[in-house]
Amino acid sequence: MDREDACKNRLEAMTQFQIDGQLMREEPYGHGHINDTFLLTFLQRDENILRVILQRMNHEVFKNPAQLMENIWNVTSFLKKKIMELGGDPKRETLHVIETKDGSSFYVDSSGYYWRAYLFVEDTTSFDTVQSPEDFYESGVAFGKFQNMLSEYPAETLHETIIGFHDTKARFQKFQEVVKADPMGRGALVKKEIEFVKERSKIAEILGRMQACGELPLRVTHNDTKLNNVLLDNKTRKAICVIDLDTVMPGLAVNDFGDSIRFGASTGAEDERDLSKIECDLQLFEFYTKGFIEGCKGKLTKKELEMLPMGAKVMTFECGMRFLTDYLEGDVYFKIHREGQNLDRCRTQLKLVADMEKKWEELKDIVNKYK
Length: 371
Ligand code: ADP
Ligand code: GN1
Ligand code: MG
Hints:
single chain; alpha+beta; 6-stranded antiparallel sheet; 46% helix; binds 2-acetamido-2-deoxy-1-O-phosphono-alpha-D-glucopyranose; binds magnesium ion
C-alpha cells in the first residue's frame, strides 16, 4: 500500500462518516509505522472547528479489520462507562469512534481498503521521544490505569487481531527461517546482529512458558505501549488518552510494561544510527516503573511485579529481532523512510538489550522499591 493510493481513496472515504461541516484542510499526520493517518479540519455551521483523525487501516498487517473494529468499539464503550464513573470526559479520555452514515464503525472503499474515523483529541500531543522524566511517568500511569480499568473486561471475548503478536518463541522461529532463506541476500551484512539474537534464543521462551503454566495471568493488554500512543495534555502535561488500540487483546501485563521501556527509556531515537547515544536510562526506567505500578492500583500479582524487568528485556529483544527479520525480508512490514532504517532500528534495540543485561541488578532494585 503506498501513500499515493491512500491519498486518492481518502477523498472517497471522508464523505462516508457522520461528520457535519465543510472540509477546510487535510494533511498526513503522525509517525506511526503501521496505518496511514490523516488529520481533517472541518468548519461547522456554528463556526466551530471540528478536527477528525481519518485512518486507512493496514489490512496486510491486520488481516481482519472488521473484527479489529469490533474489539475497538467494545473496548472503548467499556472504557467510556468506567471514565464516566470516575467523573472523567469520555470523549477525551478514550478514543471516540465516528460512525459511518449507515452506522458502521468502518468504511470499505471502492478499492477494498478499510477506513475509520476518530474525534481528534484537542490540546494534546503525542511525543516520539521523552521530553522529561515526568512525561514518561505520566505515560506509565496511563498504561497502568488502562490495565486497571480493563481488569474486569472479559478478555476471552476479544478477537486476536494479530495471531501470536507477542509470541516471542514463534517470532524467533520465523527469524531463523528468514535467516536461512535470506531472500534479499542481506544476511552477510548483518552477521553480528544475527549471532547476537541466536545466542539469546532462551530469552524468547521465558514468558510464554510462565504464561502456559499459569505463573503469569492472561489479561486485556494494549500490546503496543509506545510513548507516542499516549496523548498528553498541552497545558497540564498529564496523560489524557491511550490511543492506537489495534492490538488490544489478551496478553501479558509485563509485556505492556516492557514495550514502553524499550521505546521510552532509551536515550536515543528508535532509529538512531550513532549507537554510542543509546542506552537504557535508569532514571527514566524508575519514573516509568513508579507510574505504571501506581496506575495498576494493586492489580498486578507478586510474580508479575517480579518479572517487570524481564518484560523490558523480552520486548526489546523481540522488537530488535522483528526489525532484523523485516530488514532481511526486504522491509515488507514496518514502513521505512530511508534505506537501512529497519537495520538501524534493530541495532538500537540490540544495544538496549546488551545494556539491560549490564544493568540487570539495578533494574531489579528499582522495581523492588515500588512493588
Ligand atoms: P499507527 O498504528 O500507525 O501508529 P496511530 O493510531 O498510533 O497509528 O496514529 C498515529 C498518530 O496519529 C499517533 O501517534 C498520534 O500522534 C495521532 N493520533 C491518532 N489518533 C489520534 C486522536 N484521536 N487524537 C489525536 N491524535 C491522534
Ligand atoms: C509498530 O503502530 P506503531 O508504530 O505504534 C508495531 C509495534 C512495534 C513498533 C516499533 C501492529 O507500532 O509492534 O513495537 O511499531 N505495531 C504493530 O516501533 O506491529
Ligand atoms: Mg501508534
